[in-house]
Amino acid sequence: MKESFSMYVKKYARHAALFSLLLLTAALAISCSGGDEGDTAATAKPSSPAATAKPSSPAAATAKPTSTNVPAPSGPAGKVVVGLDTVAPLVQHPRKDINATGGIGQNFSVYENIVKAPFVGPPSPPPQDSTKYSPSDQGIAESWVIAPDLSSITFKIRSNIPWHDNGGSWGFVTAEDVAWTYNEAFALDSVSNGAEEIGDGMKAGFEVVDSMTVRQNIKPDGFDPTWAWLQGNAGFNGIVIVNKKAFDELGEELYASTPIGTGRYQANEWIADDKVELEAVVGHWTGKDANVKNITILSMPEAATREAALRTGEIDIAQLPAQVITSVVEAIGGTVQEIGIARPQGLQMAGNYWSQKCSGCDNGVMERPGFDTAISVGLDKFPWIGNPADPASMESARKVRWALAMTVDQQSIIDNILDGRGRVNYAWENILPNDPTHKDSWVIPYDTDKARQFMAEAGYPDGFDMEMWNYSNGSPGTISAANAVAAAWRTELGIEVSIDGTEYGARRPQTVDKSINVPFVHGINWIPGSTSARYICPGQGQVVGFTMDDEQCDLGLSNATESSLEVRIDNNIANQDYLTEWMLFVPMFQAPAILFVVSPNIESWTPYNAQDVLPNNLESMTLK
Question: For residue 29, is pLDDT > 70?
Answer without folding.
Answer: no
